[in-house]
Design goal:
InterPro entries: FAD/NAD-bd_sf (IPR036188), HpyO/CreE_NAD-binding (IPR038732), L-asp_N-monooxygenase_NS-form (IPR052189). It comes from Streptomyces aurantiogriseus. The chain has three domains: 260 residues, FAD/NAD(P)-binding domain (3-Layer(bba) Sandwich); 126 residues, FAD/NAD(P)-binding domain, CATH 3.50.50; 154 residues, no CATH class. The protein is globular. It is an alpha/beta fold. Helix content is 36%, strand content 15%. Helix 1 packs across helix 16.
């Protein structure tokens, strides 16, 4: 009897899993027939997010040279390394290009084809252009995967969920805003993938409140400006007349930090240093568990500071007051933030060379402007300063902090669900927009198409409109008949629109306090509410408590998603091998 594996989700995470199955099969499952059923209504490889059917104006937010789907020797995994080209090598484009998402989708489609071609000859892949509705079956027996529009289920010895980002039902606040909009004839766009949003209700010339200043906002900005016929001449935006006027704010009140615009040179900081496997083991071994803010964040701060100052002292020693060996010894011995800050103040004369994570994270905290116009000018200056710094190698400690963030993320994955705060902080510092997008934002601001509201943006539904205000500009408010929540839906199981996840939740799958699926940290097996791993069900991706920064990554940065893919592939192949042996016996 041929064994079968069902993978639900054909995007980059599903492709990465197939690549690892192909890489590990010669060792663990060679010569035995296997059917792999890939279930997804979207194209294999690209999936929903990177599909060709979206605006060519939408870019990736990473340089083409920083995007790979292939493992290298920096990935800590048991399986073999199978190198391959980065996006820029495959496409033959400048490595510093920010490719459009259609090109990335083509790259992912090619990687998928290569992964399938590398599978053993006895392994067949069947792609089902449908949605999976639910998974049934006993813990010790074959699983049944029911598909939309198919009367009989797929039979599976194992099921792996690689679902990626998902739609979600509205939370209480969004339901109330949607009901208010319906009652008063307003436009309300809840959290969504911007490329899928219906923007036709956002009318030319009319104010639109936008809550969210991250990558979803950048997509919205592009689609409502260039997407409506506007164009740029140098640093000047020439409107088409079809644009609405965007009033944007968020908790921080500023856009995500620009992508860094220069290459690394010289010695890399030796990471991990203060937050590595031993520290994670210690946190996991605590009898009473750990608190992220109390127990983990101090280690994150020390690790990022170490990366920053290692680069400053080794690459820019003329801006320091003591030798690196002396500083490193004192930094390692420093007990707490106050002692470290005193050391830094004595050793680093210029405040611009010191790492202040709180100021980076909340630059408008406590800042007040006397008028709305003054704030517009002030925030443009802030963005210009950020662009200048992130493109100046004289401030290369910023890039060292970025490398530190990647190292930290790779360690924190092992802790499971640590709340949304860390993920938001990481994205804000490390996963911001390309520099050219922020230059476009400045041009739109000068043209009056884009206006800044401030930090802690509050939205009230009153007097038949939506009204926004912020403490950044006391006394200012703006009314609009349209509100856009420019952010992705939260990846919660209990509010997921995906019927399969909802059914798993009802069937006893465990979830965290933040609504993420709980999985075994070693191989991705789903856990039930008693903490038992399911022998035949796995899950990888943002809907789990082992979520990673993304399904693909920068070369030579360890790729925690690749490590997870390898562990799950090996666990699945070993299970299927043992199943085949038992069948023969």
């Amino acid at each position: 009897m041929r064994h079968s594996l069902v993978i639900v989700g054909a995007g980059p995470r599903g492709t990465g899993l197939i690549e690892r199955i192909a890489a590990n099969a010669p060792e663990l499952y060679a010569g035995t027939g296997l059917d792999i059923h890939l279930v997804d209504p979207h194209p294999p490889g690209a999936g929903r997010i990177w599909r060709a059917a979206q605006s060519p104006l939408l870019w990736m937010n990473s340089h083409a040279e920083d995007v790979t789907m292939f493992t290298d020797e920096t990935v800590d995994m048991a399986g073999p390394v199978r190198p391959g080209p980065t996006l820029h090598e495959w496409a033959g484009i400048d490595g510093r290009t920010f490719a459009d998402r259609q090109l990335q989708g083509a790259y992912l489609g090619w990687v998928h084809e290569q992964a399938v071609a590398a599978l053993p000859p006895e392994t067949k892949v069947h792609h089902h252009l449908r949605r999976a509705l639910r998974v049934d079956g006993p813990r010790e027996g074959r699983q049944q995967v029911w598909l939309e529009g198919r009367p009989r289920p797929l039979l599976a010895d194992l099921v792996v969920l690689t679902l990626g980002h998902l739609d979600a039902e509205l939370d209480d606040e969004q339901r109330a805003l949607a009901a208010y909009a319906h009652q008063h004839g307003l436009t309300h766009l809840p959290p969504d993938f911007t490329a899928d949003s219906d923007l036709s209700g956002l009318r030319p010339g009319e104010p639109v409140l936008v809550r969210g200043f991250g990558l979803a906002f950048v997509d919205l900005m592009v689609l409502l400006t260039e997407g409506r016929g506007g164009r740029y001449e140098g640093d000047t935006y020439l409107p088409s007349g079809r644009e609405p006027v965007l009033y944007v704010g968020s908790r921080r009140g500023v856009p995500y930090h620009s992508k860094i615009g220069y290459d690394w040179s010289g010695e890399r900081p030796p990471l991990p240093r203060f937050l590595g496997p031993a520290e994670i083991d210690g946190l996991l071994a605590r009898p009473g568990g750990f608190d992220f803010r109390r127990d983990v964040w101090p280690l994150v701060e020390k690790e990022l500071g170490f990366a920053h100052y290692h680069r400053l002292f080794t690459a820019h020693p003329e801006r320091t007051a003591i030798a690196w060996t002396d500083f490193e010894e004192k930094y390692a011995a420093a007990d707490g933030v106050v002692e470290r800050e005193a050391l830094v103040a004595s050793a680093v004369p210029d405040p611009r060379d010191r790492l202040d994570l709180a100021a980076l994270d909340r630059p408008l905290d406590g800042v007040r402007y006397g008028s709305f116009e003054e704030f517009q000018e002030g925030l443009r200056g802030y963005v210009e300063d950020d662009l200048g710094r992130r493109h100046d190698p004289a401030y290369s400690p910023d890039l060292a902090v970025f490398l530190g963030l990647l190292s930290v993320y790779g360690q924190l994955v092992r802790l499971g669900d640590i709340g949304p705060g860390w993920h938001g902080f990481f994205s804000y510092l490390a996963s911001g927009p390309p520099g050219p997008r922020l230059r476009q934002l400045l041009a739109l601001s000068r043209a009056g198409v884009l206006k800044f509201v401030g930090a802690g943006m509050a939205v009230r539904a009153e007097d038949g409109v939506f009204r926004a205000s912020s403490a950044t500009v006391p006394g200012f408010s703006v009314a609009a008949r349209a509100l856009v929540e420019a952010r992705l839906p939260e990846p919660t199981v209990r509010r997921a629109r995906d019927p399969l996840l909802r059914a798993l939740h009802e069937d006893g799958a465990a979830e965290t306090a933040d609504g993420l699926l709980r999985v075994d940290r070693l191989d991705g097996r789903l856990l039930d509410r008693a903490g038992r791993p399911h022998p035949r069900r796995f899950a990888l991706g943002p809907h789990t408590d082992s979520r990673t920064p993304g399904a693909f990554t920068r070369p030579r940065t360890g790729g925690p998603a690749f490590r997870q893919n390898d562990a799950t592939a090996r666990a699945a192949l070993a299970f299927l091998r043992d199943l085949a042996c038992h069948a023969v016996a």
